[in-house]
Specification:
Blueprint (H helix, E strand, L loop, with lengths): L17 H4 L8 H8 L10 H17 L8 E8 L2 E6 L13 E4 L17 H9 L4 E5 L2 H9 L5 E5 L16 E7 L5 H14 L7 E4 L3 E6 L2 H21 L4
Parallel strand pairs: 6-7
Antiparallel strand pairs: 1-2, 1-4, 2-3, 4-8, 5-6, 7-8
Helix pairs in contact: 5-7
């Protein structure tokens, strides 16, 4: 007999559409407004295109309810030899990122130069994806990812098959496809989580993967650039919501 999934009440009546519940309209305070419009620092000017792409991504995800409060973190690879990542600074409202709310980190997730804001504690997970070839890495905290990562955690992941929208994932050309989204237990010990994620990939070298879930936490996905990573988030969020609405969570 298969494992019994935990029982969770059906939340679909609260989630008729992303903008029914989300799309906050609270005005920004003066500090947030100043941050958004301050001139970019000289040391970040060469990364202005990546910064603007991540700022736009953050605002889009915030309006969809996928990056509320100061949750989530995003990054883009801005150098390969040596590896350099542009990462959102810790504690920033992702819906209203300013041009200086970013940190340039090295392959160990440490600031690449002095006098930068603090990066997210989860930067190591971005570094891991970048070392595997990703050009941009996005991490969100949506309702459906949080609920479904708990619901399917006894199975170790979620299998999604036969949806037309699967074709939005890079490399998939038919709806007759099946993808596996692994789920990892949440922890505040990010180095140990990075080891578990790296071990999973080492043990499944032939299993294509476009993202993974952290139980009761959120989703990580990536792409060769910001646009592709953003598309993967949109596709996976759509598919997970379809699964959530069609699964009787009672």
């Amino acid at each position: 007999m298969g494992k019994r999934l935990p029982e969770i009440r059906d939340h679909s009546n609260l989630l008729n559409s992303p903008c029914d519940v989300f799309c906050p309209t609270i005005p920004l305070d003066s500090t947030e407004l100043m941050s958004q419009h301050e001139p970019i620092k000289p040391e970040l000017q060469e990364y202005e295109t990546a910064i603007e792409g991540l700022r736009q991504t953050g605002h889009q995800f915030w309006t969809r309810g996928w990056s509320l409060g100061t949750s989530s973190n995003y990054s883009a690879v801005v150098g390969r030899d040596p590896l350099r990542l542009l990462v959102t600074a810790s504690g920033k409202d992702k819906g209203h990122l300013g041009p200086n709310d970013f940190v340039v980190c090295d392959e160990l997730g440490k600031p690449a130069f002095e006098n930068q804001p603090k990066s997210s504690a989860e930067t190591l997970l971005h570094c891991l994806a970048a070392k595997r070839g990703a050009g941009a890495i996005l991490h969100t905290h949506s309702v459906w990812c949080t609920i479904l990562s708990e619901h399917f955690s006894p199975l170790g992941g979620i299998r999604i098959s036969d949806f037309e929208m699967l074709k939005g994932l890079e490399g998939i050309t038919t709806h007759e496809a099946s993808v596996w989204i692994p789920i990892f237990d949440n922890t505040q010990d990010i180095p140990s989580l990075a080891v578990r994620v790296e071990q999973y990939f080492a043990e499944h070298p032939n299993e294509p993967c476009w993202g993974y879930l952290i139980r009761r936490h959120g989703m990580y996905t990536w792409g060769k650039n910001i646009a592709e990573a953003r598309r993967h988030i949109e596709i996976l969020e759509f598919l997970l919501e379809c699964l959530g609405r069609s699964t009787k969570l009672v």
